[in-house]
Prior knowledge:
This protein has about 250 residues and is an alpha/beta fold.
Amino acid sequence: MRMSKTVLITGGSRGIGAAAAMLFAQEGYQMAVNYCANRLRAVEIATRIRSLGQDAEVFCADVSDRIQVEAMVNAVERRFGSIDVLVNNAGIAQQKLFNDISPAEWERMLAVNLTGMFHTCQCVLPQMIRRHSGKIINISSVWGITGASCEVHYSASKAAVIGLTKALAKEVGPSHITVNCVAPGVISTEMNAALDQETLSALQEETPLERIGSPEDAAHAIVFLASEKADFITGQVISPNGGFVI
Length: 246
C-alpha cells in the first residue's frame, strides 16, 4: 500500500517551485522534481527533501516539448506508482516593449507558460481520471489578472492559464479532480531579479502589506490547494499578493 502521495512539480529547482517542494516534503509527500536546465539545483532540492525523510527524484524535461513531457510522466509513474498532485510551475518571463517582441519570443513564451501546461495536464490526467482522484495547481501571475506594461506576451500567457484552469475544472470535476490556480503578486525570485531597486521599491510601496512576497508565501497557497482542506475548492484563482490587487 502506498503510504505517501506523490507530487510532480514542474520548474521545481528554484523559486516558488523549490519552496513548494520543501513544504510538500514537510507535509509528508514524496516529490518528483522537474527541471529543464539546472540539474545541480534540482538535485540539491531532492537531497534536502530526502534529509527530511521523504522520497524524492529529479526528472529532466522541457515542458514545451510533448515527447519530453510524455517521457517524464511515464518515468515518474514507474518510479512512484502514480501522480496524486500536479503543480504546473515552470515558466519564463521577459520585459520588453510590445512592438519589440519578436514572433519567436511570443511563441516561446506561450510554448512554455501555456502549452507546457496543456502537455503536462494531458499526460497526467488519464491516471487521475482512472483513480477518480487528483489535484492540479496551475501557477499564473497577478499580471494574468491585471496585465503588465512591457510584459504583454507574459501577461497574455498567464491570463490564458486562468482560462485553462476554470474550463478544465468544469470538465474533470465529475472525476473528483480539482483544478485551481495560484496567481502570485511580486515575489522575490530569480525571475524578478532583473528588476532594478527603484522598480522593486515602487512595487513594495504599492503593496498594502508593504513588502515583497517570499517564495514561501506563494508555496503555502499551493500546498493548501493540494490538501484535503481544499477538497471542495475547484476552478478558483488564489492570489497571494499582499493586497497589490484587491
